[in-house]
Amino acid sequence: MLGFVIQRLLQAVLVMIAMSILVFVGVYAIGNPIDVLLSPDADQRIRAETIARYGLDRPLWEQYLVFAGRLLQGDFGRSFIFGISVFDLVMSRLPATLELTLAATLGATLIGVPLGMYAGYRPNGALSKGIMAASVLGFSVPTFWIGIVLIFTFAVNLAWLPAGQRGATAALFGVEWSFLTVDGLRHLLLPALNLSLFKLALMIRLARAGTREVMLGETVRFARAAGLREGTILRRHVLKLIAIPLVTVFGLELASTLAFAVVTETIFSWPGVGKLIIDSISTLDRPVMVSYLVLVAFLFITINLIVDLSYALLDPRIRRGRG
Amino acid sequence: MSEPLLRVSGLATHFFTRAGVAKAVDGVDLSLARGRILGLVGESGSGKSVTGFSILGLVDAPGRIVGGSVRFDGTELVGLDAESLRQLRGRRIAMVFQDPMMTLNPVLTVGEQMILALRAHQRIGRTEALARGRDLLGTVGIPSPDERLRAYPHQLSGGMRQRVAIAIAMLHRPDLIIADEPTTALDVSIQGQILHEMRRLARETGVALIWITHDLAVVSNLADDIAVMYAGRIVESGPARDVLDRPRHPYTRGLLDSVPGDMPPGARLAQIPGSTPSLLHLPQGCSFRERCARAATGCATMPELIAAPGSPVAVRCHDPIGAAP
Ligand SMILES: Nc1ncnc2c1ncn2[C@@H]1O[C@H](COP(=O)(O)OP(=O)(O)O)[C@@H](O)[C@H]1O
Ligand SMILES: [Mg+2]
């Protein structure tokens, strides 16, 4: 098991290095930030001075090494536009995105898996058909449209919930969170719901397909022949047997939503990182872009690593340090 | 004579598929006394497994028991409610399957699976349940049972896995175990060990066994009685010695001839001509007549399963072997 963990950690570090190079070079290729930083009528001396100050005159590899070295010390550079530390900038936005994403992904999983397992257990029941029909909707209706419908229905017409912003927050571990206050929760509900519908549909489909397959297998037959109750079979046998694809998709969805919750964040004016990156792209705020993308890569790799390690917990056959 | 432990009569289980109705079990009669071993023999596809599942009430859609009766120790099981059936399964009637690689859950330890099986029928703490599991593993001949309790199925050999499945089946000291080809997936040498073990366990615990197999050689020195199945029906049944020494149905004869017994080396095994007919296109009358060398025009009607006067063997044939002309 320990060998397996070390091997996976090494892989993660290598991927992280490769990603940071790709991101750095990729962003370097987009536009020239100096045009944004300076007013068009700046003279040649100011121009040269600014270029030197941001290190833009040095070769690419040197810029990367400086960047990577600072990164390792936790220094993500300074935003061209806001003039403050990128780390502080991203960190001021990240908790909002984090809690929105977690609420949406966890909610979709906790509700979607039981529904999907039920639909797989009783594939011909009326309720199962209803669940599956609803899941098709969750797949096919675009997020922005559902978001607008949600705002229209619950915020404008019924006036039950606020239409946007984060609401009141409370501090935990020195970070402000919405989910700790009632007002914050009320603000969180609609965007989380909006973001979770697609994931809910995905979880339902996955859980249903897995359950159907496992229910027809010999393991379930043997458990039934031993007189196990249907509930026990579903909870103890089936859930564990279908867990790996569920955990995989949970991780992928969590990571990709953390990075790209931008549509929902925009519709609900949610002050998260999604909005920040869109702004930084339009202003060519290169340190923000690079740091953000590196951070996203880091999140993806970390979540992937956790998913990988949880495979080994879920399936003893993987523990032998495969591949 | 007192009522046997199990009496199956006229049992019929059909599968309602798109292609038509497959009469997998179509009028099966079996009877089994306490502590006896019945070998249920037939080519693959003859309906042996479906018979076993039907007894336990475990037939999955599109299959359904459409008729007949299964009386077990005074209770009628056909039409019994689901919860009563569940309480019977594993506690009074247990089942062991062909491939323990498929039946044991790969992501749960042996101990965990034994706890689940025990808790299906009694309130019992983990420690006590594990102690009971350890005893049973010892009983079925598994060395160092403590370690095995913590093992996952993939860490055991095929023979060990099947012993674990047998131990799980024996947890509640059932009256009857239905063993569906439990040695077919194993090496020949392991097969012998498991057979030996089962014979010993049956003798020591008094459990009755239905041993399902396509291989007559397997049951020849295990079973007290033999029932031969063909295309959903029993074609011959009686005490093992009689059926094996003086088979009366041409199909039984054919099965016996295809067993490599004490034959001179190099001799060719006789094969039953033709292959198992599709259940959807059975011939009119006797289902075996298209493969039967003795078939005559009279075979166009279905023969009854009857014993000749004074004979312990019942046979479903218009012209059984060795009948007085
Ligand atoms: N799930 C099913 N759907 C349709 N037909 C089935 C199903 N299970 C069994 N059958 C039918 O029952 C027949 C007997 O199957 P089975 O009892 O498994 O045979 P055996 O155990 O003797 O090899 C099969 O040949 C098939 O036609
Ligand atoms: Mg079978």
Key terms:
heterodimer, A: 323 residues, mainly alpha, two-stranded antiparallel ribbon, 14 helices, 74% helix, B: alpha/beta, Rossmann fold, 8-stranded mixed beta sheet, globular, binds adenosine-5'-diphosphate, binds magnesium ion
Total DSSP helices of chain B:
11
- The percent of residues in helical segments of chain B reads 25-40%
Largest pleated sheet of chain A: 2 strands, antiparallel
Oligomeric category: heterodimer
What is the topology, as strand order, of the major beta sheet of chain A? 1-2
First-residue to last-residue Cα separation of chain A: 13 Å
Number of helices of chain A: 14
Low-confidence runs of chain B: none
How far is the first residue's CA from the last residue's CA of chain B?
33 Å
CATH architecture call of the domain at 1-92 and 213-260 and 272-325 in chain B? 3-Layer(aba) Sandwich
Strand residue content of chain A: under 5%
CATH class of the domain at 1-92 and 213-260 and 272-325 in chain B: Alpha Beta
Number of beta-strand segments of chain A: 2
Shape of chain A: globular
Can you tell me the overall shape of chain B? globular
Please list the strands of the largest sheet of chain B in the order they lie side by side.
Answer: 6-7-8-3-9-10-12-11
Q: What does this 3D model show about the protein?
A:
- The complex is a heterodimer of chains A (323) and B (325).
- Chain A is mainly alpha-helical.
- Helices cover 74% and strands 2% of the residues of chain A.
- In chain A, 35% of the residues are buried.
- Chain A has a two-stranded antiparallel ribbon.
- Chain A contains 14 helices and 2 strands; from the N terminus they run H-H-H-H-H-H-H-E-E-H-H-H-H-H-H-H.
- Chain A starts with a helix and ends in a 9-residue tail after the last helix.
- In chain A, helix 8 packs antiparallel against helix 11, helix 9 (218-225) packs antiparallel against helix 10 (230-241) and helix 11 (243-260) packs antiparallel against helix 14.
- Chain B has 325 residues and is α/β, with parallel strands linked by helices.
- Chain B has a domain at 1-92 and 213-260 and 272-325: Rossmann fold.
- Chain B has 11 helices and 12 strands.
- Chain B has helices at 48-56, 82-88, 100-103, 110-119, 126-139, 145-150, 158-170, 188-205, 216-220, 240-245, 250-257; strands at residues 6-17, 20-32, 37-41, 63-72, 75-76, 93-96, 176-180, 208-213, 225-230, 233-239, 306-307, 314-315.
- Chain B has an 8-stranded mixed β-sheet with strand order 6-7-8-3-9-10-12-11, sandwiched between helices.
- In chain B, a hairpin with a 6-residue loop joins strand 11 (306-307) and strand 12 (314-315).
- The mean pLDDT of chain B is 89.
- The chains are: A mainly alpha (323), B alpha/beta (325).
- Chain A binds chain B through residues 216-219, 221-229, 232, 236-237, 240-241, 314-317, and chain B through 56, 58, 60, 86-91, 94-95, 97, 99, 102-108, 116-117, 119-121, 152, 154-155, 165, 168-169, 171.
- Residues 15, 17, 22, 24, 42, 44-50, 62-63, 279 of chain B line the site of adenosine-5'-diphosphate.
- Magnesium ion binds at residues 48-49, 180-181 of chain B.
